[in-house]
Structure formats: structure tokens, C-alpha cells
Amino acid sequence: MFYWLIDLSNTxxxxxxxxxxxxxxxxxxxxxxxxxxxxxxxxxxxGPWIIDHLRLRQGKGxxxxxxxxxxxxxxxxxxxxxxxxxxSGLVVSTVLWANPVNPYVWIxxxxxxxxxxxxxxxxxxxxxxxxxxxxxxRIRLLLEGVxxxxxxxxxxxxxxxPFSTSLVIPFFKDVALNLGWFFAVFGAxxxxxxxxxxxxxxxxxxxxxxxVMIAAASFGMISYLAGNAVFSxxxxxxxxxxxxxxxxxxxxxxxxxxxxLWFNAPPxxxxxxxxxxxxxGGMLGSIAVAVKHEIVLAVIGGLFVLEAVSVIVQVTSFKLxxxxxxxxxxxxxxxxxxxxxxxxxxxxxxxxxxxxxxxxLSTLKLR
Length: 367
Fold this sequence. Notes:
15 helices, 66% helix
């Protein structure tokens, strides 16, 4: 909405004298900072009310697995669906600060809210039934797949062919594999995979939100550079017109994430739940597809990949051999069983996320 102030200063006589000042809203960097501050303030101000409301409505809160680490039993009664706090701050900030006519913003926001709704319904079933199983996994994946496929179709139509259906290989300036319309399926796989990988990472207080913010900051920078013709040409990365505006959305995630971390820091006053983890993972995946950095997402979000792979390996090994590779999966629970404290795991995983983000960003110049 604030973006429209530029046009108003040109058309409304009373605002003509403010044109120079209001022109600052034209800059993506300024609006990204504004979105970050707005998202943080929104969650700080309304977070306590949301927590109290969810605690009152949920009663017993998120059910705690009895077969999980025993230290988690002390968290019984903590409300879940904290993703509503993040999504609220994200949506308000994006609507206020992003360019409202940019299609990339609305496509990514649609994926984020669509995945958030799927996660919300899953959390709702868990809380009301006081069970660890929400609705059927296949149905959930089907819904996520439909949302992701529709978004990828829109992104392909929005871009220029054949680049819009090509998979760009990092480290090489002009290497891209044209997948044709199969790219929509591939992109949907990336988005669904990212959503569920973040969901699996969300198992300890503060573990998921900081790596998400690190990845969002990284892709905010990538979006800004990929959407700028001068910078993309200098770095020899593919120029995708319009994607620079996604930096504003990433800034909103950073701000809302900081606000949520204030309440999610150990001991957590609220859990993110599937409402937040699925939404934020889907958002990261859709941004990566939009800016043609799908492979780089696997590097920057390497922690999420590790968590997902640990579950796949554990389940596959047990089904084939009857033996478990890890003491418990996802892998953060494995380290808990080894005797690491929760703060040790969380902070060390944060450090790994920073290192992976730096490695992913280095691909921008190594071409």
C-alpha cells in the first residue's frame, strides 16, 4: 500500500511537495527494512494476546510424544499454532510494504498461506483429538502438491520461455537444463519437499525459526540481485524481472520471525506447529523456484535437508533390515539421546545454518 504513495504524490496536488520524500518508497531496500520492522512490531504487540487466546482455546496444548525424549514431557500444556503469529505479521507487513501489482509476491504469498492452512488443520486435529496424528499423510501431501503445482504453473507462465522451464546449474554461467513443462512438477517437488523438511526440523524450542530466518535473509538478497538487471549481469546470474520484490516478503519473515523467537526462546511460551513450519518451508521453496535457485536452496537450507534425509534413512533402514541408523529421528533427537542438551543442539544447528548460508551465497560469484 505504501508503494502507492509514489503515485499519489504525482497526482494529488496537495502531496506534490512531498514527492521527493515519498520517492523513498520506490526503493526495495527501504521497503524491505520497513517490512522487517513492521513484522517484528506486529508480533511483539499482538503476540501475548494470540498466545493467551490459543492457550484458552486449546486447553491441554500440543500433545507430547511419550516415546520421545523424556525431557520434552515438561513442555506439556504449551499451546501450538504459533505459526499464526508469524503469518499474521508476514501478511500485514507484505501488504503494507510490497508492490501490490507484483505477481511474484502474490504467488509466493498464496503458497505460504495455502501451506499454512494445511498445517493449521493438521494442528487443529492434533489438539482436538490430543493425538500425534493429524489427517492422513497422503491427503496432506496431495493438497500441498496441488497448491505447489498451481504456483509453479503460474511461475512458468509468468517467465520467459525457455528459461522459465529450465533448471539452472550453480557455478556455471550458461548451463541450464530445459525440462519443458516437467519443470512445473519438479518445482512442485521442491516446494513440497521444503515445506515438509522445515516441518521435520521444528522439534526443539527455537530450532526451526532461526534457520528459516537465515535462509529468508539469504534468499532476500538473492531475490534482490536476480531481480536487478545490473547486479545480475555483474554476477552473471540469470535475471528474472520482478523477483526483486520478493526481498520485501523475506524482510517481513525476518521481522515476524524475530518477534516469534522472543516467545519461542527456551522455555517456549508457544510452539510454531505445522501451521508455521509448513508455511515457511513452502515459502522458501516457492521463492527458490521463482528466482531459479532451486539447487542453491538445498545448500542454504542444508540443515532442513539433513533433517529430512535422517528420517528417510531411518524409516528405510528399519523397514529393510529391522535396524535403526540413528537412536531417534529426526537427527536432532539423535543428539538428544547422545546427551546433548537442548540449547547445545539448537545453537550448534544455528551455527551450521549460518555456514551453509554463506556457502550458498558464495555460488553467486563462483561462476
